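<context>
A single protein, sequence plus fold
<sample>
Here is the protein in question:
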Amino acid sequence: MPQIIPTAEPFFFLGDTSQPACLLIHGFTGTPKEMRGMGEFLNQHGYTCLGIRLAGHATDPEDMIRSRWTDWVASVEDGYQFLRGTTDNIFLIGLSMGGILALLMSTRLVPRVKGVIAMSTPSRLPTDYPIWFLELISSVMRYRPKSKEPPGSGWFDKVAYKDHVAYTKNPVRSTAELKKLILEMRVALPKVNVPVLLMHSKDEKYILPDNIEEIHQQLVNTLDKTKIYMTGSGHVLPRDASREQVFKSALEFIQRVNLQK
């Protein structure tokens, strides 16, 4: 088994088993560390929290290139089935690609999840090349820079960025898989029928804020959908400067939905 990058391990915090559990899903090229602080916060309020490691992540970028979008779906399903050992009431909480997976899997997991929290979630990629083109060039261009800006420039909390753990470049082949996953989510959005909380930063410069509007508009089959805009934060909402507001908003959503029959 590939060695996991130190501090990027999956986590499990057992809480009150009479309360819902939370499945926390990190982003594209990211690690469970992105979600650990949120998991610790929710666990302090009594909730069992599992932070999974998506296939091919938190080890070596070559592992990610070998992974497919269906492997990431399987990682979420494995985590969900693990949590079913504690409760049938499970919230899916995802960042970026984790948000895509949370929204998609809310329509596929049985019994259905209690609710979804999706943060900084893309409805499309910033540079939206065709899948066939990405797959074609991936044999000669294995990696692309994440941004034209210097690393960490999108972060507001520079101290938090210093110990952020993620792959430094985007595997091109994996980007094609991400686009396939986005297309799967788009098809699924009108089928989502559980409460959804969407969070995005107005200061986000990677996945622009209009992505949240596109997702919100497609959630036509849920009567409970909320969107919250943050400021003073970049893409990685659970770790950047607005994280306390993010955590509290997530907690309030979980508490409110849990009271519903």
